């Protein structure tokens, strides 16, 4: 069985025509427990963390099938509230039904919200969104890279799971890369490296390319420039053309 790491996903040859994809994310110190650093509802914390792994799967062309949560909190009541958040984000997906499974910590009293989340999806091999960018394509940043309290305070500026689903379904998008904790510039460097291109930045860019992207609040998208307006209309979120591959 062939198993390889492709960007943030583990990709497995499932059969002759399909891949299995596995995405993981973790979250700690965000919630309403005694030692949480960022105060936010458990429902919101789970929603955003679940969104990350779902977005990573869909961004590479995978249809999510399973979401597994390892919750380092008690079931009553923090665990139940986190599960509400996971169910909420899954309920927004219109094209697939994802099974939720997981575990909680019932032996030790916990004083900080913590979890690990894993998503599993499947993709036709000819639909894998990897190394599909062409010379002359543009790169767009959708949403803003935000983290911590800025995520809580700016829901209109970050990509939601239904935004990622719209992008995932769009045939004009060649590649998608959610911005993670390394920031936009690092993700763009990866796009250039594995596609074998340099990047010509536009003269004026308003987005902060160095800051953490938090829980997939923004996403890099590559496309032929002629489809710019169509992609811009898909989400209604902040939209900025960063430049062109050359």
Can you summarize this structure?
With 246 residues, the protein is an alpha+beta fold. It is 28% helix and 30% strand.
Give a description of the structure.
This protein is an alpha+beta fold. It folds into 2 domains: 125 residues, 2-Layer Sandwich (60s Ribosomal Protein L30, Chain: A), CATH 3.30.1330; 108 residues, Phosphoribosyl-aminoimidazole Synthetase, Chain A, domain 2, CATH 3.90.650. Helices cover 28% and strands 30% of the residues. The protein contains 6 helices and 13 strands. The protein has a 6-stranded mixed beta sheet, covered by helices on one side. A 5-stranded antiparallel beta sheet has the order 10-12-9-13-11. The termini are far apart.
> How is the biggest beta sheet arranged?
6 strands, mixed
State the end-to-end distance. 36 Å
CATH domain class name of the largest domain = Alpha Beta
The overall number of domains is 2
Helix and strand content put the structural class at alpha+beta
Note the overall shape: globular
| Order of secondary-structure elements | EEEEEHEHEEEHHEHEEHE
Q: Beta-strand percentage?
A: 25-35%
Q: Count of DSSP helices?
A: 6
Name the helicity range: 25-40%
